[in-house]
Amino acid sequence: MSNYLVEFNNISKFFGKVIALKDVTMKLKKGEIMCLLGDNGAGKSTLIKTLSGVHKPDEGEIIVEGKKTIFASPKDALDMGIATVYQDLALVSLMSVTRNFFMGREPQKGLPGLKTFDIDKANEIASERMGQIGIDVRDPSQAVGTMSGGERQCLAISRAIYFGAKVLILDEPTSALGVHQASVVLKYIVKAASQGLGVILITHNVHHAYPVGNRFTVLNRGKSLGTYSKKDISREKLLSMMAGGEELSKLEVELKEMDRISKI
Amino acid sequence: MSIKSKSIETKKKISKDERLKRISRFRILLNRPELGALGGSILVFIFFGLVAGDTGMFSAYGMMNFLEVSANLGIIAIAAAMLMIGGEFDLSIGSMIGFAGICIAIPAIYWGWPLWMSIIFAFSMAVLVGYFNGILVVRTGLPSFIVTLAMLFILRGATLAITRLITGRTQVPGLRVLIENDPIAWIFAADTFKWLFTWLGSMGLIALRQDGTPLATGVPASVLWWIGLTILATWILMKTRYGNWIFASGGDKHGARNVGVPVDRVKIGLFIGTAVASTIFACVQVLDAGSADTMRGTLKELEAIAAAVVGGCLLTGGYGSAIGAAFGALIFGTVSMGIFYTDVDTDWFKVFLGGMMLIAVIFNNYIRRKVTENK
Ligand SMILES: Nc1ncnc2c1ncn2[C@@H]1O[C@H](COP(=O)(O)OP(=O)(O)OP(=O)(O)O)[C@@H](O)[C@H]1O
Ligand SMILES: [Mg+2]
Predict the structure, then answer these.
(1) Which of A188, B78, B234, B260 has its CA 20 to 30 A from that of A77?
(2) Domain limits at A222?
(3) In a domain, A77, yes or no
(4) CB nearest A103 (choices: B21, B238, B259)
């Protein structure tokens, strides 16, 4: 039995002539925050769309909890506990907190054949869950449009966790947020991981990624520049890898590694 | 897990917040989409009460008149509102009314079908048309405005062509004799609560004809349809999972799809809903008049959308209410009939209709901004 939640082995994805991903390997453990870093167009979104069942990989394999898996649809991935919170969050701002929280998965009550949406139970759960992350939803029937960006992000994450996510994929969760709100969201992500979830955090922002991440995968032009544990790489290194001196820093890291190994 | 202790903590917090919630009830009410139409209806009644209070508009007969007009419009407005909440329009409602009319009349008169069978046939055709509209919209991804505009022409043209082909004319009369012994026609045509009106008449409380029967013979079946459909639609929207899916599909179809809402199915269902509502409208009209006419229902789609908008539906979808649409229809019905009881030239009705709609859209837009942007 593999000790990884999900494994990506040598994944490639082509869009016509464009090589969006080439030979990318990435593994995620339980309780770990893996940060996926990379410049615009590096292939981050393509990679997570492959993992969440939106795209099928052209080469390589996806292994979920030790089993080789092919996702036919995003629902397949969701059913296996891989939940993606996209940048648009999949929240409807005109709808209430509760109605958003349970969108598509409403609790029901009543007789079979004449079931109704159990709005009281839904309200209760939604307020409780939001309360757990320190967001005081005074009125769960308030529209999501009235919430702040950070609160919305937390709502989307909390919803994914409530519905049994084992792997949480977050696409740029902090990009639109100010310092304070970003830190609220990041704190929540750490808490989720500490409860045993695997988190893949996609971001441009090393300053957001570095404090919370356990390991870092850097993508560049569709190829992985490698995965590094936090102890093996500094914030500055990551920054320079992303900023364009990637190849050089990679060499530097490799040299250092060889140096270390030869010393042992 | 550590969640347990936390949840007790939050429970406490929630119970404390319960009081805050009660204070904001009034604000919640203010945010309800149907508020505008409710207020509008009250204003309209106050207006006609003052201007036409002594003209017979509010006699049993007068009331049944404007209620019937409101009810007919309400039946299609409610379905149009649900579709609008789901993020789509149906411009083929009016043509569907005409089409459903001949689907009832031609088999019954020319093919010798029993009336009930032609009625069922008309509803089956409605389901097909609605399904076709829906499939076209979700498969092509084209705006429903365009798709159903095409359907508006196609259906009206087909109605005209088929009717003329089979009957050689554009009207199909002669249904009245069939209604009396039909097992289901009464569902659309009967006056209800006759006993009440007879009793009121015998008590001298409402006006009587020469022969002693009351002038207003009962509540038209369409009024009950109107009320029933309002209740059903509101129940679906507020109390069922399908209702949540309707709001979600209209509010943000991509988001909804991403969390597992079957958006396409929801939309197709709503298109079937408007076509079926058009057919109910057609049944009521055809069975009341005893004849079908290929031009029936012309422009009704716009009136239905207008009533839905006055009732608080946003044109962009995701927000609105069936109760609002029902009141929107009440406003239009009341004014269109009430205007005969005043000195105002009836030509002004359309001016009112347009003005009312404009005010409603501006008001709705303001509400939407408040709901989505205000912190
Ligand atoms: N559906 C598609 N069809 C064709 N090319 C695509 C498609 N999706 C992505 N690409 C291409 O694949 C490459 C990687 O895109 P991707 O969206 O994965 O980058 P990204 O790392 O998420 O960038 P950003 O930080 O801007 O979101 C880009 O060159 C993009 O143009
Ligand atoms: Mg991207």
Answers:
(1) A188
(2) 6-93+163-233
(3) yes
(4) B259
ipTM for the complex shown: 0.81
Do residue B318 and residue A95 have CB atoms under 8 angstroms apart? yes
The minimum CA-CA distance between B316 and chain A, rounded to whole Å, is 11
CATH classification of the domain holding A50: 3.40.50.300
The verdict on residue A74 lying in a domain is yes
Ligand 1 site residues, Cβ closer than 6 angstroms: A 15, 18, 20, 38, 40-46
CA of A49 relative to ligand 2 center, distance in Å = 10
- Who's near B354: CB < 8 A, 6+ residues apart? none
Give the containing element (helix H, strand E) for A109.
Answer: strand A108-111
Which atom of ligand 1 is found nearest the CA of A44? 21
Specify the number of domains making up chain A.
1
Residue A135 within a domain: no
CB contact under 8 A, B375 and A90: no
Whose CA is closest to A156, among A92, A108, A71, A94? Answer: A92
Supply the pTM of this predicted model: 0.84
Q: What is the pLDDT of residues B316-365, one digit of tens each?
A: 899 999 999 999 999 999 998 988 888 888 888 888 888 888 888 888 77
Residue A210 lies in a domain: yes
Coil, strand or helix at B133: helix
- Residues of chain B in contact with residue A104, where contact means CB-CB under 8 angstroms, are 245, 248, 256, 259-261
